[in-house]
Amino acid sequence: MAAKAFVLIETEVGKTREVVAALQKLNGVTSVDTVTGPYDIIAILQGKSLNDIGDLVTGKIHPIPGISRTVTCLAI
Question: Is pTM, for the whole model, over 0.90?
Answer without folding.
Answer: yes
